[in-house]
Specification:
single chain; mainly alpha; Methane Monooxygenase Hydroxylase, Chain G, domain 1; two-stranded antiparallel ribbon; 2 strands
Length: 561
């Protein structure tokens, strides 16, 4: 018989009956039998009792677990901020446990994830705060302490919002750091300064181009970067001002020494900055110390050269000044001026540059004054030219042979014609010149000197002399007219005589012929002829004497006349 079948059919009664049979066969006494049965009863009771106890304990354990689960759920719902309610119902304990277990596991999972989120967020907050505080490179941030009494999404959102603000602050600081580093780099390039050395002194992380996120962004680093930029800008401004001063000195010395342009081009990088502002200067190396030193050496060299050539330059300026004065007929005492200059230079009490600057001012004033005199001087030149032509014309008209067919006679005729036109304008020229000169003197408050003499006096003297010459010419013409008139009357009364005394100024070759008589008439001397004059001269048979006073006079005739 199989054991399972035996166990399934065996009962306590059957076993007791089988025990009785065995006892009968053994011959067990009743007392022993009772004792054994009592023992069996006690053993069964103990087994039941233990089973009941264990079952009771299991029940109590289920109640404990249910209570703990309920308590844990309650403790999880509040920190997590869950708004769902839970009830285990009134069913068997195991059914209640089956109902509560998934809820508890879900809440536990949520708590674990929430704590992880809090931990990660809090770790980032602590790390960024340590970076801003300047401890990010040296302090290891351990797992932060999480307050599990409040793990709500609201608190997590606030923490993440704070983290976002910190991240924005970090990004802003990183941007400032990068901009400051770029500014330092640009300034360093302009002045040829070691960029890495400057930045590394502020913080070593700033010189690492491969790890931009780990750059120090603390307030101290930003302040030191800002300070470095300020110092570099001040240094840049000082170098620029120094270089601009050197550029001005170079330009001034080049002008003084008349330095060739090809030599000036060597310092184009320096002179090109003469009028630049600090922000405009960005060319690499243009404010390097060696550039400034080269400019200083050149200025020193030119200053030494200037000292040796300064006397030459001073007297060159003096020559220029004297040329300007002489060009406009102004009085200048060259010897006295040169003596004063020599005394000043030899005394050593005057800065030669200032002396040259003063002479340049004098030259500028002289040019300005010369310009103010130009209009009057132009009129003086026209007047002088007209006066010279007037003198030439006077001499030309005194020449009795001016109409002869000699060489160059036609040129003289043309010049005489132009001279007469020019002479006719002398009066207006003089009047205009006088008016202009008086206006100039009224404006300047000083007399207009021409070659040390007042121009108005010169003009007045000329006008008087010219008037005297005109009067003399008029008297001479009147005397000639009277002489010719008397000669004509005498010829009409007495006729011509074979012998004629030579008038003063006439040559011995004058012959008393009709032809010669025609040649000596007043109209022929002035280059004019006419039909009437020819007819009258054809009737005259003897020459007319030019100097009537030299001939013997008949008293009766004289009285009759």
């Amino acid at each position: 018989m199989p054991p399972s079948h035996t166990q399934s059919t065996t009962t306590c009664g059957s076993l007791l009956q089988e025990l009785q049979i065995i006892w009968d066969e053994i011959g067990e006494s009743d007392s022993d039998r009772d004792k054994t049965l009592l023992e069996l009863e006690q053993e069964c009771l103990d087994i039941y009792r233990r089973k009941v106890e264990r079952t009771r304990n299991y029940k109590a354990d289920l109640h404990q677990k249910l209570a703990e689960a309920e308590a844990e759920i309650a403790n999880l719902i509040v920190p997590l901020g869950e708004h769902t309610s839970f009830s285990r119902g009134n069913g068997p304990l195991r059914q209640q446990m089956s109902a509560i277990r998934p809820v508890l596991e879900d809440l536990r999972s949520k708590k674990e994830k929430r704590i992880k989120e809090f931990s990660e967020t809090q770790s980032q907050v602590v790390w960024i705060c340590s970076e801003i505080a300047g401890n990010g490179q040296s302090v290891h941030v351990s797992d932060p302490q999480i307050d599990e009494s409040n793990l709500t999404l609201e608190k997590l959102g606030d923490l993440k919002a704070y983290l976002h603000e910190l991240q924005n602050e970090k990004n802003l600081r990183l941007h400032k750091v990068r901009n400051n580093i770029n500014t330092i780099h640009e300034l360093s390039l302009v002045m040829s300064i070691d960029f890495l050395e400057i930045v590394n002194e502020i913080h070593p992380s700033l010189t690492d181009p491969t790890n931009s996120q780990s750059k120090c962004i603390s307030n101290d680093s930003l302040a030191r970067l800002t300070g470095a930029i300020h110092s570099l800008k001040q240094e840049k401004l000082q170098r620029l001002q120094k270089l601009q001063g050197l550029a001005s000195a170079l330009i001034k010395l080049w002008n003084l020494l008349e330095t060739p342009v090809i030599e000036q081009r060597k310092f184009d990088d320096v002179t090109s900055l003469a009028s630049s502002s600090s922000d405009e200067v960005v060319r690499q190396g243009c404010l390097a110390l060696d550039v400034i030193e080269q400019a200083e050496v050149e200025v020193e060299r030119l200053n030494n050269l200037k000292a040796s050539k300064m006397k030459e330059l001073v007297f060159k300026r003096q020559n220029e000044l004297e040329e300007i004065y002489r060009g406009v007929h102004m009085d200048v005492d060259s010897d006295a001026a040169r003596q004063i200059l020599m005394s000043l230079i030899d005394s050593g009490n005057v800065d030669l540059s200032d002396l040259l600057s003063s002479m340049d001012d004098q030259i500028a004033k002289a040019k300005e004054e010369a310009l103010s005199r130009k209009d009057i001087l132009d009129k003086v030149e026209k007047w002088k030219h007209a006066s010279e032509e007037e003198k030439w014309l006077d001499e030309y008209e005194k020449d009795e042979n001016r109409y002869s067919a000699g060489r160059g006679a036609h040129k003289n005729l043309k010049r005489a014609e132009k001279a007469r036109i020019l002479v006719s304008k002398i009066t207006s020229l003089v009047e205009n010149l006088t008016a202009k000169t008086k206006a100039w003197e009224m404006e300047k408050g000083i007399p207009f000197l021409y070659d040390k003499a007042p121009l108005l006096h010169i003009v007045e003297e000329y006008t008087m002399q010219r008037q005297l010459r005109e009067d003399e010419k008029r008297r001479s013409r009147e005397q000639k007219r009277l002489q010719e008139q008397l000669a004509a009357e005498q010829e009409a009364i007495y006729g011509s005589k074979p012998a004629i005394r030579k008038p003063l100024g006439q040559s011995n070759s004058v012959v008393g012929t009709p032809m010669s008589r025609r040649a000596m008439t007043p109209s022929s001397r002035h280059g004019m002829s006419g039909g009437k004059d020819n007819r009258e001269s054809g009737r005259v048979t003897h020459a007319i004497p030019l100097n009537y006073v030299a001939l013997p006079k008949d008293d009766s005739v004289s009285r009759g006349v």
